[in-house]
Amino acid sequence: MSESGPKYYILDTNILLHEPLAFLNFQEHNVVIPMVVLEELDHIKDRQKDVSRDARVAIRALEEALHEATPEQIISGVPLTRVTGEHQAEGHLSIFPDYQLRQTESALSLNENDHRIIQTALQLQTDRAPRKVVLVTKDINMRLKAKGAGVKLVEDYRTDQLIDDIRLLAKGFYTFEGNFWDSVKDVKTEQDGRDIYHYVARDLFPSVYPNEYLLDETETFAARVESFTDTHVKLLDIGRERLMSQRAWGILPKNIYQAMGMHALLDPTQDLVILTGPAGCGKTLLALATALEQVVEKGLYEKIIVTRNTPEIAESIGYLPGTEEEKMAPWLAAITDSLEVLHKQDENMESSLNYIMNKANIQFKSLNFMRGRSIQNAVVLLDEAQNLTASQLKTIVTRCGAGTKIICSGNLAQIDSYYLTAVTSGLTYIVERFKNYHGSSTMNLNGVVRSSLAQYAEENL
C-alpha cells in the first residue's frame, strides 16, 4: 500500500454540526465516522435548539449514503459516488466500531467520547499504515490531546475557510501611495447631476472590487469604484470634504473610515453593509444612526429589526420573564446604549427614546425565530456577527426580501464561540463571499473613537 494514495479523514462530531454535509467535501479521500459520533448526534438531535437541526440533517445525509449497504460494507467503506446531488466526493464512507476498542494502561480512558475518537485515529493509523490518517476537529483542546497521544496528523476543518490569514481580509478600501492623480496618465470624466465620474485604466489597481473606496496620502482625494471592465474602472469622485460633511441623525463621522462607512450605509443601492473593526470604533452607533435616518427622516424603510446571537451560539433565549423583546434586551444593551448617546441632549431622554422606538418601529428579535421568515422593507441590524457560523449568517441573509437592507457588524478580536476563529468566523466568510457583489459594501473602521481610555486599552492590552 502506497503512502501517496487516498487519505483517511476521521471526523469529530463538531464538524458535522458545523457543516452537516462535510463528509462530501474530501474529494478522492476516504471519510471515517466513529460510532461515538453517531451517538453524540443522536443525543443532540432531539434538543430544542438550533444545533439540533444540523444534527438531524447530518443523520439523514449519512443514512442516504449508507442505507443500502450491509454491516460489513459499512465498516469496510461505501462509495460516496452513490450520494445524489452536486459534490466531488469519490472516496469511501465508513463507520468505525469504536466500541470494540479495548482499554489498555497506555491508552486514554475510553469512558470519554473525545478519547474514543482519538483512539480510533490511533488504531487506524496503525491498521492503514503507510496511508495517512487525519483527525479533523474544531475542538482546539482535542487537537492538542490527539497530538500528545500520538496522532500524527490533526487538522481543523478548513473547507469553508476562504483566507489563510486574517490580515488578508478585504477592508473595503484601498490607499494609494502619494497623490493618486500623479499616477493617472489618461482619464475620461463625465458629470451626472452633482456626481462626477472618472474612467481610468484598470492596471493602476492591484485588485479591484465593486463599491471599494479609494484614498491616497493627500487630504482631498476620495472615490468609490462604481463598475469596471477588463481595461477601465469607473470611479465616483466623492472627495474627503464631502465624505466628512455627511450627517445622519445628528451624528457626524469622526474619521475618514467612519465617513466611508456612513456613505455606504446611507446608499439605498447597497442591500448589505458589513462593518468590521476594533471595540469602540463606532460600528453600532453608525449603524443605528443611519438606520434611524433612513426610516424616520427619509421614509425609505418601514421598520428596524435588531438582532444578535445569544449565548449557546444562537440557541435558546432561555426562560427570562416577558416578551421576546424583553428577553432579548440584556443581549442588545449595546443598541440601547447607542440610542441613549443619540438622544442624550434631549430635554426628556426617556420620552424621546420611547417615541423613537415607536416611530421607527424598532423590534428586538432572536435569531431562533429568523428561519422561515421573509422580511420586507426593513433595516436589519445584526450585531456581534463574529460569533456566528457561515450557515447561521446564510440563514439570516436569505430572510431579507424586497426593499430590505441588512447591516452586519462585528469585531473579529472578540469571538466567544468555542469552535470559531477569526479566519473561520461567519463574519469573515460573508466579507469574502460578498466582496464581488455589486449590492454590498464592506468597511473596516480603523481607529477607536469611544474614548482615549478605550483606545489605549485596545492598543496595549
Structural account:
- Helices cover 32% and strands 19% of the residues.
- The protein is built from 16 helices and 18 strands.
- It has a six-stranded mixed sheet with strand order 3-4-2-1-5-6. Strands 7-10-11-12-9-8 form a six-stranded mixed sheet, with no helix packed on it. Strands 15-14-16-17-13-18 form a six-stranded parallel sheet, with helices on both faces.
- α5 crosses α6 (140-149).
- The longest helix has 17 residues, at 50-66.
List the helices and strands and how they pair.
Layout: E1 8-11, H1 13-18, E2 30-34, H2 35-44, H3 50-66, H4 71-76, E3 78-79, E4 92-96, H5 113-127, E5 133-136, H6 140-149, E6 153-155, E7 173-175, E8 187-192, E9 195-201, E10 213-215, E11 222-228, E12 232-237, H7 240-244, H8 256-265, E13 272-276, H9 283-297, E14 303-308, H10 311-314, H11 324-328, H12 333-342, H13 349-359, E15 362-364, E16 378-383, H14 390-397, E17 405-410, H15 426-433, E18 440-444, H16 452-460
Parallel strand pairs: 1-2, 1-5, 2-4, 5-6, 7-10, 13-17, 13-18, 14-15, 14-16, 16-17
Antiparallel strand pairs: 3-4, 8-9, 9-12, 10-11, 11-12
Helix pairs in contact: 2-3, 5-6, 8-9, 9-12, 14-15
Low-confidence stretches: 312-317
- Quaternary assembly: single chain
Q: Approximately how much helix is present in the residues?
A: 25-40%
Rounded mean pLDDT is 86
Computed Rg: 26 Å
Molecular shape:
elongated
Between the first and last Cα atoms, what is the distance in angstroms?
52 Å
Indicate the proportion of strand residues.
Answer: 15-25%
How many β strands by DSSP? Answer: 18
**Secondary-structure content class:** alpha/beta
Individual helix count: 16
